Amino acid sequence: NVAHGLAWSFYCGYLRLVLPRLEDSIIEFCATHQASAPLWARGSRRLLILIPINANISHKLEEEDDNIRFYDNLPNNEINRAGVRGRVYKHSVYRVLDEHGKAHDCVVEYATPLLTLYSMSQESSAGFGEPERRQQVLIFYRTLQEILDNSLECRNRYKLILLSDEHEDDPHGLSKTILRHLQQQE
Amino acid sequence: NVAHGLAWSFYCGYLRLVLPRLEDSIIEFCATHQASAPLWARGSRRLLILIPINANISHKLEEEDDNIRFYDNLPNNEINRAGVRGRVYKHSVYRVLDEHGKAHDCVVEYATPLLTLYSMSQESSAGFGEPERRQQVLIFYRTLQEILDNSLECRNRYKLILLSDEHEDDPHGLSKTILRHLQQQE
Ligand SMILES: Nc1nc(=O)c2ncn([C@@H]3O[C@@H]4COP(=O)(O)O[C@H]5[C@@H](O)[C@H](n6cnc7c(N)ncnc76)O[C@@H]5COP(=O)(O)O[C@@H]3[C@@H]4O)c2[nH]1
User: Fold this and answer.
1) Environment class of residue B88 by beta-carbon count within 10 Å: exposed (0-12), middle (13-18) or buried (19+)?
2) What is the mean pLDDT of each run of 10 residues along chain B (186 residues)?
3) Which residue numbers delimit the STING ligand-binding domain (chains A, B) (predicted)?
4) Alpha-carbon distance A110 to A14, whole Å?
C-alpha cells in the first residue's frame, strides 16, 4: 500500500533528519535576519507541513494566496547520505499577512511525497487512479501522524495541516488556515 | 506494497528531474576539473545507481573499498519543489582505481529509498521484517527497471547495479563491480 510506505519514507528519510535541527536553524536565521525575529509567533518554531486532500501541490506558496510571500531560506543543512556528499536539506520561510495586514513569519512546505501520489495517479502503469488517490492521501496523513506521535526526537517540532478542498475558492484560504494553526500552538 | 511506491517515488521525485540534466552537469564539471576530463570512460556519463540486495547502504563509498575515493561534487541543480525554494539536487563524483592502479571517474550513488526499507525492517510498527526486506529490494529493482525502460527522458542516462552479497568479503568487490559496469557501456 503506497501511502503507508511514503509516510515511512517521509519520516525515515527526511523528518527524522531535519526536525531535531530545526530549532537551531531558526535561531541562527533570526540572528541574521533581525527584521524577521519579532514576527515569529510563540510556538511557531515548528515545520508546518501542508497535506492537501486532493494532492494538488504548488511549488511556490505565493502562487496560491497573495497574502503569502517567500521571505528567505533557513541556513542549509548538509548531510552525507547514501554516497551523496553533503546532500542539502533546507526549508523556506514565508511571510504571511493576516486580515489586519500584520506579518507573521513561519517555516512551511507541502508534504513532498504527495507529488509522487499525484504523478502515480496520472500514470496508468502505476496501478491507481484519481479515485484512490484521495484515500491514499488520508492513509498517508494518518500513518504519518501515528509515526510522529511515537517519535521522541520529533516531538513538538512539526504541525501536520490537512487541507480540505472546501476553501479552494477563497483566495486567502491558505493564509487563513496557516495563521489559525500558528495561533493554536501553545 | 512498499517497494512499488518507493520505486515510483524515486523516479517521480528524483530521477525524472535530474537525469535529463546529468550530461550537461558532467560537461560543466569536466570544464572546471581538467584533470578529471580524460578519466571518464566512453559511455560513463550516466548515473550509476547501486542497489545492494541486503539494503545495507553506506553514506561514503570509500568506506566500502579503498580503491574508491570521493573526488568532488557535480555542480548543484536548484529546483523549486513543493514550497521549498531552490531545493538542491547534486551528485558525487568518485575516482575508482582498477587493478593496474589506473583511475576512472564516474557519478555513482546508492538508491536512497533502500535506507527507508532498511529502517522499516528495524521498526516493528512498520509492518515488515528482515526476511521480507530482501524480497522488497528485488521488487524495488524490478519496478524501477520497468519504469525507467518506459521513460524516454531518462533513456541511456543511468545504470542500475544490483549488488548481491556474494562478494561482501572481497575488499575490492565494489570497485571491480563498478568498473565492470563502466566498461560494459557502449
Ligand atoms: N521537502 C523535502 N526536502 C528534502 O530535502 C527532502 N529529501 C527527501 N525528502 C522526502 O523524504 C522522503 C524520503 O527521502 P529519500 O531521500 O529516502 O527518497 C528520495 C531520494 O531517494 C530521491 N531524492 C530526492 N531528492 C534527492 C536528492 N537531493 N539527492 C538524492 N536523492 C534524492 O528521491 C526520493 C523521493 O524524494 P521526494 O519525492 O523529494 O521526497 C522525499 C521522500 O518522500 C524531502 N522532502
Assistant:
1) middle
2) 95 97 96 94 88 94 96 97 98 96 96 96 87 94 97 96 86 95 77
3) 1-186
4) 13
Sequence-ordered strand ranges (E) for chain B: 47-52, 68-73, 77-81, 84-89, 92-97, 103-110, 158-163
Q: Name the phi and psi angles at A130, rounded to 5.
A: -60, -35
* Paired strand residues for B68: B96
**DSSP E strands: which ranges in B11-137?**
47-52, 68-73, 77-81, 84-89, 92-97, 103-110
Pocket of ligand 1 (CB under 6 A): A 6, 9-10, 13-14, 84, 87, 89, 109, 112-113, 115-116; B 9-10, 13-14, 82, 84, 87, 89, 112-113, 115-116
CA of B186 from ligand 1 middle (Å) equals 31
Taking only the tens place, the pLDDT of each residue in A84-133 is: 999 999 999 999 999 999 999 999 999 999 999 999 999 888 888 888 99
Which chain A residues in 58-87 lie under 8 Å from chain B, judged by CB atoms?
Answer: 58-61, 70, 73, 76, 80-87
Three cell numbers written together for B124: 516493528
DSSP-derived letter for residue A8 is H
d(CA A155, CA B185): 48
What is the rounded distance in angstroms from the CA atom of residue A71 to the CA atom of residue A51?
A: 21
How many residues are listed for chain B in this entry?
186
Tell the residue number behind the cell numbers 545495507, with chain if given.
B56
Residue pair B21/B28 in contact by the 8 Å Cβ criterion: no
Q: Give the count of alpha carbons within 13 A of A57, CB side only.
A: 24
